[in-house]
Design a protein that fits this description.
Layout lengths: L3 E8 L4 H16 L5 E4 L15 E8 L7 H15 L3 E6 L2 E5 L4 H12 L2
Antiparallel strand pairs: 1-3, 1-4, 2-3, 4-5
Helix pairs in contact: 1-2, 2-3
Length: 119
């Protein structure tokens, strides 16, 4: 299974310190899953963005042979993270497929599970 990229969008209301903290928390939660590797992915600034107007974005790449098997655990971690972190949204990208979650609704979380288990 290829990398799954998780993008945390803090919007303009959260600063880089908050983003580093919550990205680190999510990374630590995901690293507890046996057989799953997590690494940071640098987020480029949007083209033409001026400092002070750039929205804060954190990215993690999640990979490993156990990712498909651990999809339920990843789903639960992401759902809990959304509730506690207060991010504007979280986008999960796998290849050409993408899912943006703005609230931990049951439907969005089930779609996340479908995305993670679809090979």
């Amino acid at each position: 299974m290829g990398d799954v990229v998780i993008v945390i969008d803090g919007g303009q209301r959260h600063g880089p310190d908050w983003l580093d903290q919550v990205t680190g928390e999510l990374r630590a939660d995901l690293e507890e899953i046996r057989g799953v590797r997590v690494r940071p992915v640098p987020a480029p600034a949007p083209e033409g963005a001026k400092s002070g107007v750039v929205e804060q974005i954190g990215q993690l790449a999640v990979s490993g042979g156990a990712l498909g098997t651990a999809a339920w655990v990843v789903r639960d971690i992401v759902a809990k993270f959304i509730d506690r972190a207060g991010a504007r949204s979280i986008t999960i990208k796998k290849g050409e497929d993408e899912l943006t979650i703005t609230a931990a609704s049951a439907e969005q979380i089930d779609r996340l599970l479908d995305l993670l288990t679809d090979e």
